[in-house]
Specification:
This protein is mainly α and 61 residues long. The chain contains one helix and no strands. It is rod-shaped and about 85 Å long.
Length: 61
């Protein structure tokens, strides 16, 4: 192989690595966002249930 062919090969492999790292980063970011929504939603639901118990406890019977 000539020097020029080797440098072209290296550039292509680095681009592929960059795309793979970018793809992994996007997947990790998506997982983190989804986990944040699930945690927030669970806390919101728990707060709503707590509110129902609180209001039921203080209801005038």
């Amino acid at each position: 192989m000539s020097g020029r062919a080797e440098s072209t090969e290296r550039r292509k492999s680095k681009r592929g690595e960059r795309k793979a790292k970018n793809g992994e980063w996007r997947i990790e970011r998506g997982v983190a966002i989804r986990a944040g929504f699930y945690i927030f939603g669970t806390h919101l639901f728990a707060g709503f249930v707590w509110l129902l118990f609180y209001l039921g406890e203080h209801a005038h019977k």
